Amino acid sequence: MRQGSGDAFDHLPGPRHPPPCPAPTRGAGTRVARPPLRAKVLLLLPLLAALAGPALAVEPDEVMKNPKLEERARALSEELRCLVCQNESIDDSEAPLARDIRLLIRERIKEGESNDQVRAYLVSRYGDFILLKPPFQADTWLLWLSPVLILGLGLAAALYARRGAPRSTPALSAEEEARLAALTGGDASG
Questions:
Q1: CA-wise closest residue to 64 among 117, 112, 106
Q2: 107-136: per-residue pLDDT in tens?
């Protein structure tokens, strides 16, 4: 048993700290060249861009045979909020309710209804909340004007705070200058 430092592992044979692993080498002691991080990122960029595309939840069995009607259905689906997710359109949502609404839209379009008629039906059934861009009405004016109101309140608060700030800082007295020089070691320049 070797003389130790009172460590719990003093009784174990062998070196206390193993030597570090050597760097990977190729040939007579030359280091393996690794591609720089920038090159790795540039190689992964196209893959990430491909994966970042929109995740459309419309399933193949929902798609209408007529491309013009399908285009109308997709346009309507992009305007309507998923009532489950609440932050994405029903076109992007995979929620079962969003699927039901997408199918309902396609049924109504197939029956010959216009986009406005389909939209009006859904609003009558679910309220204005289903619209991603609600109309400017008496019950939504606060929603539409809140950004302007918040900006105005922020500007008013900044002007009020600035009005209360002193115009200029008074000069230091001789006593204050001597104390500052003592604290800074005489390096105070002004």
A1: 106
A2: 999 999 999 999 999 999 988 888 888 888
Q: For residue 93, what is the domain's CATH number?
A: 1.10.8.640
Domain count, the chain: 1
Nearest by Cα to 77 from 128, 13, 9, 132: 132
Q: Does residue 11 lie in a domain region? A: no
Residues of the chain with pLDDT under 50: 1, 55
**Assigned domain for 37 exists:** no
136 part of a folded domain: no
Q: How would DSSP label each residue in 91-144?
A: TT---HHHHHHHHHHHHHHHTT--HHHHHHHHHHHH-GGGBSS----TTTHHHH
What is the domain extent for residue 100? 60-130
- Which burial class, exposed, middle or buried, applies to 180 when counting CB atoms under 10 A from its CB (0-12, 13-18, 19+)? middle
Inside any domain, residue 53: no
Both structure tokens of 174:
């001789």
- Rounded to an integer, what distance in angstroms lies between the CA atom of residue 120 and that of residue 113? 11
The answer to whether 188 and 180 have CB atoms below 8 angstroms apart is: yes
Give the predicted TM-score (pTM) of the model: 0.50
Going by C-alpha positions, the residue among 155, 138, 139 that lies closest to residue 147 is: 155
